[in-house]
Amino acid sequence: MTSEGLAGALAAVLGGRGLLVQGCDSGPAGEALAPVRLRKNVSYVVLAVFLNEQDEVLLIQEAKRECRGSWYLPAGRMEPGETIVEALQREVKEEAGLHCEPLTLLSVEERGPSWIRFSFLAHPTGGILKTPKEADAESLQAAWYPRASLPTPLRAQDILHLIELAAQYRHRARHPFILPQELPCSVVCQRLVATFTSVQTVWVLVGTVGMPHLPVTACGLTPMEQRGGIKMAVLRLLQECLTLHHLAVETKGLLGLQHLGRDRTDGICLNVLVTVAFRNPGIQDEPPKVRGENFSWWKVVEEDLQSQLLQRLQESSVVPVNR
Ligand SMILES: *[C@@H]1O[C@H](CO)[C@@H](O)[C@H](O)[C@H]1NC(C)=O
Ligand SMILES: *[C@@H]1O[C@H](CO)[C@@H](O)[C@H](O)[C@H]1NC(C)=O
User: Is the CB of 294 under 6 A from ligand 2?
Assistant: First the structure.
């Protein structure tokens, strides 16, 4: 990939379109990059937030024995062979009786690859709200409740934050619509848009083994990598080329999400926006020195890309992860 290739790749990632994963620049030590299998070593959960014109939120009443009668947002585990959107539509149909379309990803929460939850803002496109007469093993019923007076008990309080995020997004969309891109991937990995900014200049870290490319880091399944969550994989890659102790590294959030789920590709690629800065305040004109030959900084001179990147950074215009 030439500099035009890099610019095209960055434009695709900033536009939420994604890019096929061609290989990984960093992987967990001593662990072969074996493909992951849904429900064997990875588990993904989908969740939907619906808000109507009256500021009501759609809740479902749980049927499962351990939480029977409590209220929650429509949510559930993905099944092998499904795309993320198909899983969302199936869960919403089973639990609430409605057909739906996702508008945008709202939030990603994770505890390493063994549990990742994708929450969407969605809107109903048909179907009939499930009444208590249709109670089954999936749910007892579904109903709209004013956001300010939710029923009790809730199955868990974690949905309050997601409902709040959805309301904020509807009030003022902080990031563009971000929907899963159907691109196959065999591992759980992250493609980094790792940026260093000085006054009006942005550099992006690139992998230089093969054609220059946006670096990809695979998440490990070892207990240590699981405990550290997916940010461990970002730090591992950066550690391979930068001296981190005088740097502050932050994952701002997601620019995009890639998954196919067919033909035994149960992996996921998260395109993440990361900032690298010096801990010591003061203007630094040049990015931190890169060790070795496998990475380098690319100065983004294309004006539209530069301004898009600066805007996404300044406004944190990304899908939050674990927040
Ligand atoms: C995940 O599980 C599958 C099926 O059990 C196995 O073949 C694969 O090696 C595992 N992947 C990793 C990365 O451990
Ligand atoms: C750079 O990449 C090559 C090829 O992937 C690898 O053999 C080498 O160990 C890497 N160098 C460093 C310093 O990680």
Answer: yes
Q: Which ligand lies nearest the alpha carbon of 239? A: 2
Determine if ligand 2 sits within 6 Å of the CB of residue 3.
no
pLDDT classification of 224: cutoffs 50, 70, 90: confident
pTM for the structure as a whole: 0.95
| 199 pLDDT tier (thresholds 50, 70, 90) | confident
Fold designation for 43-171: Nucleoside Triphosphate Pyrophosphohydrolase (3.90.79)
Q: How many whole angstroms from 42 Cα to the centroid of ligand 2?
A: 28
- Tens of pLDDT, residue by residue over 286-298, are 999 999 999 999 9
Encode pLDDT of 114-127 as tens digits: 899 999 999 999 99
Q: Which tokens is 35 given?
A: 């493909």
Q: Which residues contact 99 (CB under 8 A, 6 or more apart)?
A: 89, 92, 93, 124, 125, 126, 127
User: What number does the ligand 1 atom closest to the CA of 33 have?
Assistant: 13
Q: Is 56 in the pocket of ligand 2 (CB under 6 A)?
A: no
AA letter at 16? G
The domain segmentation of the chain, as residue ranges, is 3-33+181-200+229-315, 43-171
Tell whether ligand 2 has an atom less than 6 A from the beta carbon of residue 239.
no
**Cross-strand bridge partners of residue 142:** 60
